[in-house]
Amino acid sequence: MAHDFDPGPIAEPFLTLARDYPGAETYPADAFRVEWGPIFHRGRLDGSARVLVIGQDPAASEDITRRILVGAAGHRTQGFLAKLGIDHSYVMINTFLYSVYGQQGGEQHKNDAAIIAYRNSWLAALTEPAQLDAVIALGQLADDTWNKFKTQTEPGIASLPYAHITHPTQPESSSGGDPQKLAQAVTAMLTNWNTALQQLHPLIAHPDVPGPLTLYGEAFAPGDLAEIPEADLPPGLPDWMRSPVAWAQRTGTTATEKRATITITIPSSA
Amino acid sequence: MAHDFDPGPIAEPFLTLARDYPGAETYPADAFRVEWGPIFHRGRLDGSARVLVIGQDPAASEDITRRILVGAAGHRTQGFLAKLGIDHSYVMINTFLYSVYGQQGGEQHKNDAAIIAYRNSWLAALTEPAQLDAVIALGQLADDTWNKFKTQTEPGIASLPYAHITHPTQPESSSGGDPQKLAQAVTAMLTNWNTALQQLHPLIAHPDVPGPLTLYGEAFAPGDLAEIPEADLPPGLPDWMRSPVAWAQRTGTTATEKRATITITIPSSA
User: Fold this and answer.
1) Across the strands, what pairs with B128?
2) SS3 call for B163
């Protein structure tokens, strides 16, 4: 049985970008989990991407898969792309190379010149071939990322169809464990996402799977989440690493211990 | 600062071998930890390897780095190669793609035709360009691996300089936590390794770093272990993943839990 895999940043300019990346001199360790290493992307780096997705920062499971947006946020994003008819012609990068530590880590460093410069090199490399139909930003920091890049790129790229949508796990992070608030936040997010879908769907000139637009209801329906394709992960990774179940947790009894520890548990459904 | 990385199995025949690998139909789950996925190799897949190392099966940390021989056994092996003047022109594969589960898992399945057939495809791909100066087997199962391959390859490859040496963590596994037994087993291993070094050193026609042979003493000296090169791991992996300190542990209170769990703890020295 053939298992597709993602070769990663093996061709220029990505090869050099994945070799020469900023460390703790650029991403201060009090605001970013630099000790887990940078995580660069997910998806196509061969110029075949039609949609560029900008996320925020990597989650614990992504420290293991070394690809971004593979967990809960990734499955929701993958489902959003599927509604646009895109099932493989995408590429995703994050606002931050490293996982944000603490509540304000991201906001505090969103204007740091060296963070922006390196990220803009990725954005230039991903947009210059100019085959993109659309750009999607997940959340406010990603929106800020695109806005900053727009000021320094050419007009044809700056004017690409673009949607800033609510971050896919904003409902969880805003509802503090309250199920009713969570349901309301999901509904609000899906309303926001539906607006973006209606805007973008007609503009996707090269869908992988052409078809009519199906909007979200008030909650996620089973078909609204999409699998992370095996072809997006490095060779040999087990299937459960693409599961929406949270299989990687930062564990420990102190903050220091928790920063230094990740416990991986294979989901019992696997 | 440039961080070299290993692109992995991106060119044929390795691309296809890393796509079409055997699973639980070939590696029974009662004898192998198939649930963590296959781990293929470490080192050069571009034909530049001068020494082929055959190991046994991946350890817990290697489930994370997705490259073999990066832990304690890897550092000892890397030091052995350094004594032969080889610091990057090597390639390593294991006897088994998956971690052996239980004491007898390896012995029981060493004659399984499908395991041998797939492994021989790797060995053929690694030896056919015929630029190797030597082959080294770590432990008895690896020795069996090379002997089985020899029967079906051409005479020029079957007669390559070859050494079967004691497995680098045999002292730990044979001494049951007794420090005196451990020291004795290390001495015995290093005597065995010295014999192999004296045999192989003159036959390494293309050392990376030419120089005289320095044998081991009765115990490992600091210079006898060598770092795992950054260029052997996938892009972006943090330095401590190349540490000889055991940073990945199978944890849990039951056998089932322990099979399903790996806890990663960044070494405090990192």
Assistant:
1) none
2) strand
